């Protein structure tokens, strides 16, 4: 029985994904849930006192759910310089932006920028940063998030000098003459810049808690405006959980957040008796996050065959022994683990660990995740299917990187990358991932990318054989991501008993020109039946 008077929402089309039968004309919402779907006359007869919200010719879809992004990281980045290609088009513009940021930064404090893309803007080094900002420590992070460039002042404060040895799983890049060039690769960067990864020694200081609260509120508003109602933050530590909790207390958590806890902090979770599923519908622990290799855009992923035109096969950032121990421990505790693995060689090592853990301690129904799962082949797919493993590939990388991917990996290999068609045809659970700030956060961009496999800047086709339909892409961004976070019973559909999280679009993406999906207007976003964004 429903005690609260529902609200009826009607639109020209509703893509409810509720199962068999025709799509509904309207839905009734009460107490944050969808309580009924059907025609407007059916629902008004059943709920005669219910107000009707009519969206006219718009389309209602289940709320978009990003299965792998980085809210906490973005809350920090958004406080600093945006050095993305959208913001700076040339190296001169980038260095000018860094110089201007330094002028506004008190003496001795860090100057930071993010989302720099060497493929589109060009490359720079420590010497270039020293020339324009000699007095402040500077860190510029690459869009892939797996390497960055610092100046000499930063190297000094981080305790890195010409005699420093590369950290395990990382690299201090050097000029041909052997001198440090300021590029910190993989663990060399993460150890000093990501609070969620445990590290002893000096690091880049995080912003104040008050500033981060301002940052996370801004990020959530921006992502609500793109139609997002749920996100899995794929790398959090205790401070991030505290930040999200404070945002909720302040009324700024207008998006549901699942969290993958960094393996570096797993001991604390075990001590507290906290595991997968701990929390509620707004803030919940999904599982544990571990790393194994590098990045696609950063060209550091672990491959079985070298990058095109090189003899370089990428980096393994965590030893195989540590990977096996981490997977075995989390699995034995009955918790889900998501392992970052981009290259095919890395994915095989992860599958080895999953298979061993399941064989030595069978846990039926405990399904682990492969984060990114970028370069696959038939053997990998068959092994994943046997394990019922979950794939979380990039949604928007074909659109964002375009033809550069063909250059870096070769067209035969890009036909096996972000392989949504192959993975879906195999019957695997496939979730959506923007991996923002590494890729576009807008779900409609991700949908267009999966449907067209075409670069948005250069028009290049990247693995066209992996195209999927718009209906399939929507399910990846809704049902797939819900399944990946253990929420399949309450998210991803607009059906009785499901959370009333939905997005109102100016056009039906299932009927739109595939090359125009990214341009569809987000008219409104609702979480629990409450509007959190209106255009």
UniProtKB/TrEMBL annotation:
Domain of life the protein comes from: Bacteria
Molecular function via GO: hydrolase activity, acting on carbon-nitrogen (but not peptide) bonds
Ranges for domain Amidohydrolase: 52-533
Span of the signal peptide: none
PANTHER family: IMIDAZOLONEPROPIONASE, PROTEIN LONG AFTER FAR-RED 3
Record's protein name: Amidohydrolase 3 domain-containing protein
